[in-house]
Amino acid sequence: MNKLKFISAIILILIGIAGRFFLVSYAGIPNFEIITAIALISGIYLGGVYAIVIPLSIIFLSDLVIGNTYIFIFTWTAFALIGLFGFLFKNKLKKKLLFNSILIGITSSVFFYLYTNFGWWLMSGMYEYSLSGLIRCYWMAILFFRNNLVGNLIFVPLGIYTASKVFNYSQKRCYYFSANKNERTL
C-alpha cells in the first residue's frame, strides 16, 4: 500500500504541475487552478504527510518556473491547510460525494480568499493598516475569489469523483493480487 501511495503522490504532483502550467500559460485566468482539488484528494485518499507534501511540492516546483509574489508563505500554507482539511474531513467527504465535494470546494475558496488576501493586506503595503484598508483589500480581490470559486466548483467535484473511482479500483486490484498470491503459497 505504501508503494501505491508513493506512486499516486508522484502522479498527483505531475498532474498538478502540468495543470498549473497549462492554466497559467493557456487559460490565463488568475486564481483558476487545480491545486485545491489535488490538495483535497491528497488529504482524503492518501492522508498523513501526503496531504501537505503534495500541494507544497506542486507549488514549489511550478513556482521555480512561473514565480510567485512575496506573500508566497500565505499561498503555500493555504494549500497545505486545504490538504489537511481533506484529511480531517475525509470520512464526511466520502459520503454524499458530489454534495460534500462542492461544499468543501466552496469552503476552500472562501478560506483561500480570506487567508491569502489578509497576507496581501499585511505585506504588500498597498492598503492602509486599518479595518477600512483590510475591507478595501478584500473588495479589490473579488475577481480573484470569483475565478478561484468557479475553478473549485469544476475541479474539486470532478477531481474527487475521479479519484474515488481510481483509488477504489486500485485498492480492489491490490487486494485481488495479494489474495491470489497468498492462495498460491498455501
Q: How do you describe this structure in short?
A:
With 186 residues, this protein is mostly helical. The chain is built from eight helices and no strands.
Sheet with the most strands, sense and barrel status: none
Please state the overall shape, judged from the principal axes of the Cα atoms.
globular
Radius of gyration: 18 Å
The structural domain count equals 1
Instruction: Indicate the structural class.
Output: mainly alpha
Number of strands: 0
Which residues form runs of ≥5 with pLDDT under 50? none
Please provide the ordered H/E string of secondary-structure elements.
Answer: HHHHHHHH
Tally of DSSP helical segments: 8
How far apart are the first and last residues' alpha carbons, in Å? Answer: 22 Å
DSSP strand (E) fraction?
under 5%
Overall mean pLDDT: 88
Portion of residues within helices: over 70%
Molecular structure report:
This protein is an all-alpha fold and 186 residues long. The protein has one domain. Helices cover 85% and strands 0% of the residues. It has eight helices and no strands. Helix 2 (35-46) packs parallel to helix 8 (142-185) and helix 6 crosses helix 8 (142-185). The two termini are 22 Å apart. The mean pLDDT is 88.
